[in-house]
Design a protein that fits this description.
This protein is of the alpha/beta class. Helix content is 32%, strand content 22%. It contains 13 helices and 22 strands. Strand 7 and strand 8 form a beta hairpin. The chain is elongated, with a radius of gyration of 35 Å. 40% of the residues are buried. Bound molecules: cytidine-5'-monophosphate (C5P).
Amino acid sequence: MSSLTGKRVLLIIAGGIAAYKALDLIRRLRERGASVHVVMTESAEQFVTPLSVASLSGEKVHTALFSLTVEPEMGHIELSRDADLIVIAPATANILSKMANGIADDLASTLLLATDKKVLAAPAMNLRMWLHPATQRNLAWLRANNVAFCGPDDGEMACGEFGPGRMSEPLAIVAAVEAVLAIGSTTIPLPAGVGIRPEKPPGLLAGRRVIVTSGPTHEPIDPVRYLANRSSGKQGKAIAEAAARAGAEVIVISGPVAISDAAGASTIHVETAREMLEAVSRTLPADIFISAAAVADWRAEAPAGDKMKKSGNGPPSLSLVENPDILATISQHATLRPRLVIGFAAETTNLVEHARQKLARKKCDLIVANDVGTGTGVMGGDQNTVHIVQADTVDSWPKLDKDEVAARLVDLCVTKLEEKTR
Ligand code: C5P
C-alpha cells in the first residue's frame, strides 16, 4: 500500500506555463492512491483545459469563486475541509503574493485564506520574478507561517533565461507531498475557543413529544366580557423552552397571553377551557403532558349573544357551570395517557395539602404547587417558589427564576421518564 492511499489532495493550478506538468502530477498522485480535487485559477485555464484536468483527476474541476454549483454548498470552505493537504502547482508569483497578503478575489485565493490545512507550494515563475524582493519578502512570510515549499529548480526557462524558477518535477512534488503528510497533523491549529462548532449532543429529551398548556383561559360572558385570571403564561413558556432546549418536540397550547410564543416550540392559541381540551386531545399522543395553564374552573352557562345592558333592576345574575378538567381528563385517558403527566396547583391556603388531594383526584404523576396568594408576586412575576408533590414525597425548592424552575422541572421529567421505562 502506498503512503498516499486514501489521502485527499486539493490541487490548485495557477496560471503558468508549468501548468501542463500539473497534469502529470495528478496522474502520479492518483497512482499512489490519493484522490485529487482540482481548483484552477482563471489564468490556468489559458494553459490547460478544465476538461483534461477533469479526465485525469476523475473529479469535477472547480474553476470560479461564484460557481453556481459550488457556492450554494459553501464550496470554498467544504473543498478545503475535505482535504488532507493543499498543493499549489504551479504556484505563481501572483498567487503567492495574494496568499502572503490575505487577498481573496477568486476561488483559489479565497480557499487559501479560509483553510486550516497545511499548504505545499511548488513555485514556478520567471527567475527575475522569483528573485524580486517583493516575491522574496512574500516567501519569507509564507515560510514563517507554515507554508511548505518544493522547489523551484534551477534550469532553462520557457522564456529563454536560466536560473531558479522552474517548477519541480511531478515526482519531486509527490515526494514532498509524502514528506509533508508524514510529519503528522495537516491542520493548522486555531486559537482556543474558535473553530468548527462541535456537534450538539442530542438533548436528554430528544425524540420525546411534550405538550404544555399555558396561560389563563377566557370564558365569555357576552361578546365583550369574560371570566379570566391573572396567569401570565410565563412559567408555561419557560417550561416549553426548557423542554425544547433538551431536544423535545414541544407543542404549547396557550390561552390568551401578552407574551411572545415559546422559542423552539409550536404554539396553538386558544381562548376557552373547552377549546384547550380539544386542542390537547387533538395533539396527543405525547410522552409528557405538563398542565401549567390556569384553566378557568367555571364558565358562564349561557353567554349572551349581544352585550348585556344595565336594566335599572340591578345586576344580572350569572349562572356558572363547571369546565372540563383537562388535567384529569388527560391523566385518565383510556388509550393515550402520556407516560408522564404533571399538574400545577396554584393555591393561596394549605398549599401542600391541597396539592396532595389534587394529585390523588386528578391521577397525575406529580404536582408543582405554588403559592399565588396576594403579595407573592407569582402571578405575572418572574420568580416562583414551588413544592414538588408526589405520592409520598414533597420537595420544596427555594425561590427561583421561572426559567430555573423550568430547567429543574425538565431535569425531573427526564429522571421520572427513565424510572418509568425501567
Ligand atoms: O383544580 P385546580 O384548578 O386547582 O388544578 C390545577 C391543575 O389542573 C393545573 O395543572 C391546571 O392546569 C389543571 N386544570 C385543568 N383543567 C381545569 C382546571 C385545572 O387542566 N379545568
